[in-house]
Specification:
Structural class: alpha+beta
Strand order of the largest sheet: 1-8-3-5-6
Shape: elongated
Radius of gyration: 16 Å
Number of helices: 3
Helix content: 10-25%
Oligomer: single chain
């Protein structure tokens, strides 16, 4: 069963699309049908499938999650105990828990069956740059 590891460099919180890289991986495989599993190997970022046509969607999602889960330095978050790695760390874990670390995408005729406007994104929840590892597995 084909597998590939993909590293994505991030530059702070936000959405980082990697649909093209996933599509290239699927296209290079001999299997025409199957399920692409996409898995991120971290606890402070996540994966989402979201619209990739209008950049306002990304901005609105970023703003929504920032309001939903502010940094631990915000007075509303004074209940947080885990603060060892900075004010963005525990909120990043909460955001990751609200989203997902694994996505399954059907594959047919050598292509992912994403909708017209769907893209695959790494959702970075930390402020500082990171190198995130994603595993692509076609079965």
């Amino acid at each position: 069963m084909p597998q590939m590891r993909l590293t994505i460099g991030t530059f702070g919180q936000g959405l980082y699309e990697f649909t093209r890289e996933a599509a290239d991986f699927v296209r290079r495989q001999p299997a025409e049908e199957g399920l692409l599993t996409v898995f991120v190997r971290h606890t402070s970022c996540s994966l989402i499938i979201q619209e990739n046509a209008d950049p306002d969607v990304k901005r609105d999602l970023d703003a929504f999650f920032a309001r939903l889960v502010p940094p631990s330095s915000d007075p509303s978050m004074d209940w947080i105990v885990h603060r060892l790695e900075g004010p963005d760390d525990m909120p990043a874990h909460i955001k990751a828990a609200l989203t997902q670390t694994s996505i399954g995408i059907p594959v047919s005729q050598g292509q992912m069956l994403l909708g017209t406007w769907q893209g695959i994104y790494l959702f970075e929840h930390r402020d500082k740059p990171h190198r995130r590892e994603i595993v692509l597995h076609l079965s």
